[in-house]
Write a structure and sequence with these properties.
Layout (H helix, E strand, L loop, with lengths): L25 H4 L1 H7 L8 H5 L6 H19 L1 H7 L6 H4 L5 H8 L15 H4 L9 H13 L6 H30 L7 H5 L2 H6 L5 H16 L3 H12 L9 H11 L2 H25 L1 H13 L7 H9 L6 H22 L6 H15 L8 H11 L3 H25 L9 H27 L5 H6 L18 H5 L8 H16 L1
Helix pairs in contact: 4-10, 7-10, 9-10, 10-13, 13-14, 14-16, 15-16, 15-19, 15-20, 16-17, 18-23, 19-20, 20-21, 20-23, 22-23
Family: Belongs to the glycosyltransferase 87 family.
Keywords: Cell membrane, Membrane, Transferase, Transmembrane, Transmembrane helix
InterPro entries: GT87, UCP010361
């Protein structure tokens, strides 16, 4: 059913774009933001909200994000000073572990090997024949390796490699923030949720996930600007760096189905497939085994850290060899539920809401959860439900998990068993799972009761990140099938039938 415009939002005239909306002030609608603003002198006025001079909202939020990123780098300082190399558990005790320095030598970059094309010797890889990352991530790693010059030892090269990668990932962070701020153009300060997220500062330099997260954010911004082909191209490139961005095509499918915008979805899906193929097909042709390593490793990987399946496995003592089947089944059922939600909701959900739900579902059902996976969800959460209370509840659970996994590895990696035992680790996994599920529940409530959706409630918006879907009328809903009237004969046909029936009775 097509929703009626709110009282404060006049319906746009046919052929005319909707009027520009004023910038939403978080302190006018969010009690946590209002309370926190007292530290800086009270709720923001118009000049502070809209920005003055050079300090526009996007520049302020980027500056805050880079400051938090720098604090995250400082948190890794004990490892940069030697904890990565001084013992098996030292990097866990300081909670500063990163894959980046270890894989510089462990995946052959120190020896000048070309990812996917050159087989990695067992003496340095521990049995991993090829790089187990998607192609664009491998390219990113290779560029950083080429810039890693001048070290006097392997240890210095690994340290420099981390610093160079951290600098490149900082650029990705700046791109991410700009895109989040501009996706909902009249809500720039929602980007502060991403900038101040503890999970981002703590996990940004553990791995290379920020590359895919930034490209996904660019794709969502392009979709919000009604450029579906370009949006699809960016989502395809993001999928060439990490698998999860392809999941966003599912929400676009059901939303375009409901709005009858099949052309927009076709352009997005086609652009995604084309850009993914341009990156991947050459590597497939040159080295199938090297290209396929990421996919075979993901398939063969056993139940691992942070997952619901690990809790079940540790509690029951059973090895989940068929975890892939169970995880895939739950994911399929969950996606079907999200699709039904999108097609049954009283008002078409916003793109960011469904995107968050689908990626969160993947996180909850997957057989492994690395701490940096929280980066996938942070920008989606800021766009799906920009409310500080719920966001901070979820981030507190993620920060607890971040500390818990390192303390658990410290406990299991040392004979002294100093750290978090198995039972305690199961509790922090449960906290992560429950925190994510809580935020999902809040988003689902917003979908079922649109009057609770902060984006729509604060200023009467429809879907500022929806692009061609924004204010589009519904073309199909599941509820419309149940209420579809039965076809009726024309009046002439009905009269002729009545005449024939009367003649039959007379006979």
């Amino acid at each position: 059913m097509t929703s009626a415009p709110t009282a404060r939002t006049p319906a746009p005239q046919p052929g005319r774009p909707p009027a520009a909306r004023p910038v939403v002030r978080p302190t006018d609608h969010d009690e946590v933001a209002t309370a926190a603003s007292e530290v800086a002198g009270g709720p923001a006025g118009r000049r502070a909200v809209e920005g003055t001079g050079w300090w526009t909202p996007v520049r302020v939020v980027v500056a805050v994000a880079l400051g938090m990123y720098a604090l995250g780098m400082l948190q890794k300082l004990p490892c940069l000073d030697g904890a990565w190399f001084s013992g098996q558990t030292s990097q866990y005790v300081h909670a500063c572990y990163s894959d980046i320095p270890h894989l510089y030598n462990g995946r052959g970059f120190a020896d000048g090997l070309v990812p996917y094309l050159d087989r990695i010797p067992d003496r340095i890889s521990g049995g991993m024949e090829y790089l187990e990352y998607p192609v664009l991530t491998g390219v990113f790693m290779q560029i950083a390796a080429k810039l890693t010059v001048g070290g006097d030892s392997l240890r210095q090269d690994e340290q420099l490699y981390w610093v160079i990668n951290a600098g490149m990932l900082m650029v990705c962070l700046a791109v991410l923030i700009v895109c989040v701020v501009r996706t909902h153009h009249n809500r720039p300060w929602d980007g502060m949720l991403v900038a101040l997220a503890p999970g981002l500062a703590l996990t940004a330099t553990i791995n290379w996930d920020l590359l895919a997260v930034a490209m996904t954010a660019v794709g969502m911004l392009l979709w919000a600007r009604s450029r579906p082909l370009a949006a699809g191209v960016l989502l395809g490139l993001a999928t060439a760096a990490k698998l999860y961005p392809v999941l966003l095509l599912g929400p676009l499918l059901v939303l375009c189905w409901r709005a009858g915008r099949w052309g927009a979805f076709g352009r997005a899906a086609g652009g995604a497939a084309a850009s993914w193929a341009v990156v991947n097909v050459p590597v497939m042709l040159l080295s199938w085994d090297g290209w396929a390593k990421f996919y075979t490793f993901s398939q063969e990987r056993p139940v691992d850290f942070g997952s619901l399946w690990l809790i079940i496995q540790q509690r029951t003592g059973r090895t989940f060899d068929d975890a892939n089947i169970y995880a895939t089944l739950l994911m399929v059922l969950g996606c079907a539920g999200v699709a039904a939600l999108a097609l049954c909701a009283p008002r078409r959900p916003r793109f960011a809401q469904l995107a968050f739900l689908v990626v969160a579902l993947f996180v909850l059902t997957n057989k492994v959860y690395s701490p940096q996976y929280v980066l996938w969800l942070i920008p989606l959460a800021a766009l799906a439900r920009p409310r500080w209370r719920d966001f901070l509840i979820w981030q507190s659970c993620e920060a607890l998990y971040f500390l818990g996994i390192w303390m658990y590895l410290a406990y299991t990696g040392s004979d002294k068993h100093q750290g978090l035992p198995e039972d305690g680790y199961q509790l922090v996994i449960a906290a992560h799972l429950l925190g994510t599920a809580y935020l999902c529940a809040m988003v689902v409530r917003d979908v079922l009761r649109p009057e609770h959706d902060p984006v729509r409630r604060d200023d009467g918006s429809d879907d500022p990140g929806g692009g061609v879907l924004d204010r589009a009328p519904d073309a199909f809903t599941l509820s419309s099938l149940a209420h579809r009237p039965a076809p009726q004969r024309s009046s002439g046909a009905a009269q002729r039938a009545a005449v024939r029936w009367g003649a039959t009775l007379r006979e």
